[in-house]
Design brief:
- InterPro entries: Haem_peroxidase, Haem_peroxidase_sf, Peroxidase_pln, Peroxidases_heam-ligand_BS, Secretory_peroxidase.
- One of its GO terms (biological process) is response to oxidative stress.
- One of its GO terms (cellular component) is extracellular region.
- Belongs to the peroxidase family. Ascorbate peroxidase subfamily.
- Its cofactor is Ca(2+); heme b.
- By secondary structure, this protein is mostly helical.
- It folds into two domains: about 15-160, Peroxidase, domain 1 (Orthogonal Bundle); about 170-300, Peroxidase, domain 2.
- About 45% of the residues lie in helices and about 0% in strands.
- The chain has a two-stranded antiparallel ribbon.
- The chain is globular.
- The chain binds protoporphyrin IX containing FE and 2-acetamido-2-deoxy-beta-D-glucopyranose (8 copies).
């Protein structure tokens, strides 16, 4: 009792906001009694969709990350804008978040079995895990459950909380620290960029206008930069996408760290991980595949607990795009 009060006080004092700390305790198999098949229904539905669309693991992993970083893992990322409010999903960094309709479908499958019991936040956390794990035929990390859904989603919150691909190391560390994540977590979780794609405009200043006078980023592999220029023809290209881990962007592995060491990290935020000794040591550690899988699992569990709503907080949404 005393301990939790001290913790709460610490949260308020250190973070200045309750948002990052109001989370209660998540549990293993929270729906065991209330909806015994929930996790299996979600897994089956997720796998059905992933089998048809191998881009989904990257979409869901990024969606879960964005959800957790903006107001905690409470599914606010899934809410649509309304007449009086522009939702998080409209934020520029959300440019390519898609797969919302698929989450809606997975949620509908659970609702059929147990209406009003399983939160959208848990559906998203589980779908992210199960989609990435699909090819491995076993879960890559443990997802505790019992999250509840938030009722607000504001574009300003997304812009204020999400790290930018143009951030330097200092800014990245600060951004993660506010969420209770350290340098080790930052490096390990950046390994999520081993799958998926990035739009040209999220890195093209590195190719065409790094110095503000048309120069190229010297920390970007020159051979790779030349290749990227054949894909992204100008600074204003905001439609073309390239693989973040070239040749291996559908394969979840530690290869991101291999290319990172070759100065082929796509964003400035990726390259920034080589600019600090502590971070660089972790990058080197992640070249050991089994260590990466182990540490990624730990870090995802930590990320999945950021600012969660539990107990009687929030609600269990019926549909994920709109509050009840
Ligand atoms: C360290 C700070 C991070 C920054 C600055 C960042 C930035 C970005 C950007 C700019 C994109 C490309 C979006 C686009 O152009 O469509 C992207 C994609 C992606 N990010 Fe991150 N990210 C970060 C951390 C993470 C973390 C922690 C995860 C998950 C563990 C993650 C998972 C992904 C995935 C899977 C994609 C690919 C999405 C797709 O293919 O649709 N990122 N990220
Ligand atoms: C999930 O899929 C497996 C394999 O197809 C099936 O045996 C199982 O009954 C399904 N579970 C649920 C809860 O639908
Ligand atoms: C919610 O927004 C998504 C795009 O963010 C859109 O595709 C979908 O049609 C919207 N759903 C409803 C019911 O308005
Ligand atoms: C927006 O309007 C809805 C009703 O359409 C209302 O319930 C909600 O409180 C309003 N939100 C804000 C932030 O004003
Ligand atoms: C990192 O970026 C911040 C914000 O743009 C800036 O104030 C700071 O000087 C930068 N730090 C380094 C080491 O470049
Ligand atoms: C290049 O960057 C400089 C400084 O940020 C900016 O003034 C200029 O407009 C940029 N050039 C282009 C073509 O966008
Ligand atoms: C992409 O660029 C075009 C032209 O520069 C602009 O009209 C459009 O709004 C941009 N789209 C996005 C999603 O930023
Ligand atoms: C640039 O990338 C190539 C592979 O594409 C690699 O052989 C080379 O070592 C890299 N250069 C640097 C400076 O990392
Ligand atoms: C999918 C989605 O909602 N995309 C939005 C991302 O942000 C841009 C710019 O604010 C919007 O125009 C898109 O609709």
């Amino acid at each position: 009792m005393m301990k939790s009060h001290i913790l709460l006080l610490l949260c308020v004092v250190v973070f200045g906001v309750l948002g990052t700390c109001h989370g209660g305790v998540l549990r293993k198999n929270y729906y065991k009694a209330s909806c015994p098949d929930a996790e299996e229904i979600i897994k089956n539905a997720t796998e059905k969709h992933v089998a048809k669309n191998l881009d989904l693991p990257a979409k869901f992993l990024r969606m879960h990350f964005h959800d957790c970083f903006v107001g905690g893992c409470e599914a606010s990322i899934l809410l649509n804008s309304t007449s009086n409010n522009t939702a998080e999903k409209q934020a520029v960094p959300n440019l390519s978040l898609s797969g919302f309709d698929v989450i809606e479908d997975i949620k509908a499958e659970v609702e059929k079995e147990c209406p009003g019991v399983v939160s959208c936040a848990d559906v998203l956390a589980l779908a992210a895990r199960d989609s990435v794990s699909y090819k491995f035929k076993k879960p890559l990390w443990e997802v505790l459950t019992g999250r509840r859904d938030g009722t607000v989603s504001r574009i300003s919150e997304a812009l204020a909380n999400l790290p930018s691909p143009f951030f330097n190391f200092t800014s990245l560390v600060q951004n993660f620290a506010i969420k209770g994540l350290n340098v080790h977590d930052l490096v390990v979780l950046s390994g999520g960029h081993t799958i998926g794609r990035g739009h040209c405009n999220t890195f093209s200043p590195r190719l065409y206008n790094f110095t503000g006078r048309g120069g190229q980023d010297p920390s970007l592999n020159a051979t790779y930069a030349a290749f990227l220029k054949t894909k992204c023809r100008s600074l204003s290209d905001n439609t073309t996408t390239v693989e973040m881990d070239p040749g291996s962007s559908l394969k979840f592995d530690n290869h991101y760290f291999v290319i990172l060491k070759q100065h082929m990290g796509l964003f400035e935020s990726d390259a920034a991980l080589l600019t600090n000794n502590h971070a660089l040591k972790t990058v080197n550690d992640m070249l050991d595949s089994s260590k990466f899988f182990k540490d990624f699992a730990v870090a995802m569990k930590k990320m999945g607990a950021i600012g969660v709503l539990t107990g009687t907080q929030g609600e269990i949404r019926k549909k994920c795009y709109v509050v009840n």
